[in-house]
Write a structure and sequence with these properties.
With about 180 residues, this protein is an alpha/beta fold. Helices cover about 35% and strands about 20% of the residues. The strands form two sheets. Strands 1, 2, 3, 4, 5 and 6 form a six-stranded mixed beta sheet that branches. Helix 4 links the parallel strand 5 and strand 6. Helix 1 packs across helix 6. The radius of gyration is 16 Å and the shape is globular. The structure holds flavin mononucleotide. The site of flavin mononucleotide has 22 residues, from helix 1, strand 3, strand 7 and helix 5. This is Flavodoxin domain-containing protein. InterPro entries: Flavodoxin/NO_synth (IPR008254), Flavodoxin_dom (IPR026816), Flavoprotein-like_sf (IPR029039), Protoporphyrinogen_IX_DH (IPR052200). Pfam families: Flavodoxin_5 (PF12724).
């Protein structure tokens, strides 16, 4: 069944926007009506049946605008299917699952959303913003580690779950009590 889906993302250097677009394309392939929006541009979610929210991770934190979105829309999100993802790990540890920051965990629990899916990120000298990012982009952390197959596979599962009104099967094995490093 076709549903109206919002894919909202928070990015600093653009990599998470690319992931959100890829998720949106996969959801459309499965017949859903999809808007992909920078989260700061979203004022209301009333029109949507389901929401996918993704944030870039910096210093183990989500972008503030993504956290603000969860806070402002907690009640409405609680009445919808919600999937979360974050994009971050780069370099040799790019396949490491990231835990949600505590603040985000609390909000996710309130909403009833399952833990965020981790997607590897991107860090290059061309897109790096700021002194620290530019320095990091000259190390072994540099590269585009985004796994488009994994992203499409996850989005496919989310698309099916949205159609059926179910939760995503990717998260069923995860424990409720996972704790973030900070
Ligand atoms: C200063 C800095 C701090 C970062 N901290 C983390 C982190 O704590 N965890 C993580 O997984 N990735 C971290 N990253 C990697 C970014 O999350 C990654 O480059 C991501 O793809 C950026 O997304 P964006 O282009 O959408 O902003 C960091 C990158 C920089 C430049």
């Amino acid at each position: 069944m076709s549903r109206k889906v919002l894919v909202a993302y928070a990015t600093k250097m653009g990599a998470t926007a690319g992931i959100a677009e890829a998720i949106g394309a996969e959801l459309r392939n499965h017949g859903h009506q999809v808007d992909v929006r920078e989260v700061g541009q979203v004022s209301t979610i009333g029109w949507y049946d389901a929401v996918v929210l993704g944030s870039a991770v910096y210093a183990h934190r989500w972008r503030p605008e993504a956290v603000t979105f969860l806070r402002h829309h907690t009640k409405e999100l609680g009445n919808r299917q919600v999937w979360l993802f974050h994009s971050g790990p780069v370099g040799p540890a790019s396949d490491q699952t990231q835990l949600m920051p505590r603040k985000v965990q609390r909000l996710a629990r309130r909403i009833g959303a399952t833990p965020a899916m981790t997607f590897a990120g991107k860090l290059t000298t061309e897109t790096a913003e700021g002194f620290l990012a530019t320095r990091m982009a000259r190390t072994e952390l540099a590269g585009d580690f985004r796994d488009w197959e994994l992203i499409a596979a996850w989005a496919k599962d989310v698309a099916a779950a949205i159609s059926s009104g179910d939760v995503s099967s990717w998260h069923r094995a995860e424990t409720e009590g996972q704790e973030a490093a900070r």
